[in-house]
Specification:
The protein is mainly alpha-helical. It is about 65% helix and about 0% strand. It has 2 domains: about 55 residues; about 60 residues.
């Protein structure tokens, strides 16, 4: 049985009416079922989580779009630092093979995040 949202002693006095196409509703209902929540509870929890992520500026542990964008920026910064370190190492006659592998992995992760962010925009 799908569960409802957690009880709030002060109550919830505001409501919204949201319309979905048949396909959109099926997606939302499937996600709600996977989360073991009633559809309305799922919509409420998801909207509130995303709103808090935006107003919190993408706080640590937040998995929404703002959090992914922050992680993407950090990955790019780490990649830049790693490339600079590899360049310095190569100039000193060292091997850069491990650095190249690390840069390739960072690029894979950044690409995955970029794909997820693009889906959010569409």
């Amino acid at each position: 049985m799908a569960r409802r949202r957690a009880y709030v002693s002060s109550g919830r006095s505001h409501s919204l009416k949201v319309k979905f196409s048949v396909e959109e509703f099926q997606e939302v209902a499937a996600a709600a079922a996977a989360a073991e929540l009633a559809v309305a509870a799922y919509v409420g929890e998801t909207v509130l989580r995303d709103a808090r992520a935006v107003t919190d500026g993408g706080t640590e542990g937040e998995a929404g779009r703002v959090g992914l964008a922050r992680i993407q920026r950090e990955l790019f910064a780490a990649r830049t630092a790693l490339v600079a370190a590899a360049t310095a190492l190569e100039g000193a006659g060292g091997s850069t093979a491990e650095c190249a592998a690390a840069v390739a992995r960072l690029d894979e992760l950044a690409g995955e995040i970029h794909g997820r962010l693009r889906r959010w925009r569409s």
